[in-house]
Design goal:
single chain; elongated
């Protein structure tokens, strides 16, 4: 059974998985410019939401074409896919993506990130990615055979 904030993928045998896109507004500036904080978040968050970190986080300072677009970007690969964070301290804004091949507690992730950056407003979007991606090849074959039988039956009955 999935917890309250978990994302449920429609079919156990198909669909790649959920993609949480979170935008945080009104964040505390000093947190957005803290390389160590971004590193810690990327180090801790996977385990908190049941994911497996497969490399240390990679975090760096970015300077944009416009001076006010500078920030910190960080990325961590997880066995289930990845998590990325991009901060814009001058604009008190953070953008976070969590993409996974299995369900995770999106509410817990949102709460953790909101507290970590002291966001005053959060905007989230959740997508189910790769809705026809076969997670289990034998399961996919069963689905295709069932679809073929369903399509073949009406055609056979028309000729009878």
């Amino acid at each position: 059974m999935l917890s309250a904030g978990s994302v449920e993928v429609a079919d156990e045998m198909t669909g790649f998985g959920p993609h949480l896109m979170l935008d945080g507004y009104g964040c505390e500036r000093r947190k957005l410019e803290d390389l160590d904080l971004i590193y810690r978040i990327l180090e801790e968050l996977p385990a908190r939401i049941g994911m497996t970190r497969i490399m240390p986080p990679y975090v760096f300072k970015y300077s944009g074409l416009k001076p006010e677009d500078w920030g910190i970007s960080g990325f961590v690969l997880i066995a289930e896919s990845h998590i990325s964070i991009h901060t814009f301290p001058e604009k008190n804004f953070v953008s976070v993506d969590i993409f996974s091949c299995k369900a995770f507690d999106a509410e817990l992730a949102e709460s953790y990130l909101k507290k970590s950056f002291q966001m005053t407003k959060v905007e989230t979007n959740m997508l189910d990615r790769g809705t026809e991606f076969p997670k289990e090849i034998n399961g996919a074959a069963r689905i295709v055979r069932a679809d073929r039988r369903r399509v073949a039956r009406p055609a056979a009955s028309r000729h009878a």
